[in-house]
Amino acid sequence: MIFFRKDEQLENIGNGILEATWAAFPTLARNQVALTWIVYDPPVPVNTGGALTPDAFWNHPVRGFTYRGVERIYPASVVKLFYLVAVNEWLEKGMTAPSQELARALRDMIVDSSNDATSLIVDILSGTTSGPELPVGPFETWKYQRHIVNRYFQSLGWEEMETINVCQKTWGDGPYGRERAFYGEMLDNRNMVTTNAIAKLVHSIVGGVAVSSGRSQAMMSLLKRSLNPDDLPTDVEEDQVTGFLGSGLTPDAQSWSKAGWTSQVRHDAAYIELPEQRPYILVVFTEGKANAKSRDILPFVSQLFAKEISSL
After folding, report:
1. What's phi and psi for 185, nearest 5 deg?
2. Euclidean distance between CA atoms 70 and 191, whole angstroms
3. Helices then strands, each counted (H, E), the chain
4. Which of 42, 133, 182, 269 has a CA that sits 20 to 30 A from residue 26's CA?
5. d(Cα 237, Cα 125) in Å, to the nearest integer?
6. CB neighbour burial string for 264-284, b if at least 16 within 10 angstroms, e if fewer
7. Predicted confidence band at 235 (pLDDT cuts at 50, 70, 90)?
8. What is the pLDDT of residue 55?
9. How far is CA 229 from the centre of its chain?
10. What is the distance between the alpha carbons of residues 300 and 21, in angstroms, rounded to a whole number?
11. What SS3 state is found at 247?
12. pLDDT digits (tens, 9 = 90+) for 21-55
């Protein structure tokens, strides 16, 4: 059973927004978008600093809308959310030791979306390193180790995590050596997630129940985005706000998010608070070269959801 209940009001709004998006962006095919939208009706159980026990939080009903939310899609850098939670779990359980380098890499992975930082994080999580191809025996051991994050998320028993694959590093130019071999000949072992899985993960973080309330709050502080244009970096190709969901919001909104993009996909996952409105999670994935290049689709969708939230 998915963690939210479907709701006729949200279905009508969500389907209307999709139709408006397809009308505005003819390059976006119906099978090139997936989204999940979770709305928090009062009393709001999230961003409370972990005031609710995990039992109370998970038993609190939420409603949502999803379109193709169970389709497996390459997540690009949105996968870093899974590594963020996993590292905090490892630290909490004493499976890895805190260090300045780990803290620096964690920050750079989420705040700047650094692939180099992510490489270190995956090494720390799995006890493996990149390098030349390995003989069969050692490579089997290496591969088993690299699936440790998958095993962790499957151990949670969440239906949404059953079909995901989160075992690969993120790359600029692509994998080489043992990393390329690990992808498989046809890249069949690359990272794949669903918008429902991402929404559940974000839901647990903003609910203060991902690992622990203190660690959830630390994750939230890394995910916080300023929507003030003056705060956005000018020395990077993508800043995780411009051309993403944050662009469709007014400066008085608050957003916690993680974006992902390649030449083939443009995605974002955000928890959003608008003044005097119900807070919500919005996860939108788009595929296709033309859509990945577009800096207009995600802000357009975000703006429509922000507008409709006031009608609830």
Report:
1. -50, -45
2. 15
3. 12, 7
4. 269
5. 28
6. ebbbbbbbbbbeeeebbbbbb
7. low
8. 94
9. 23
10. 7
11. helix
12. 999 999 999 999 999 999 999 999 999 988 899 99
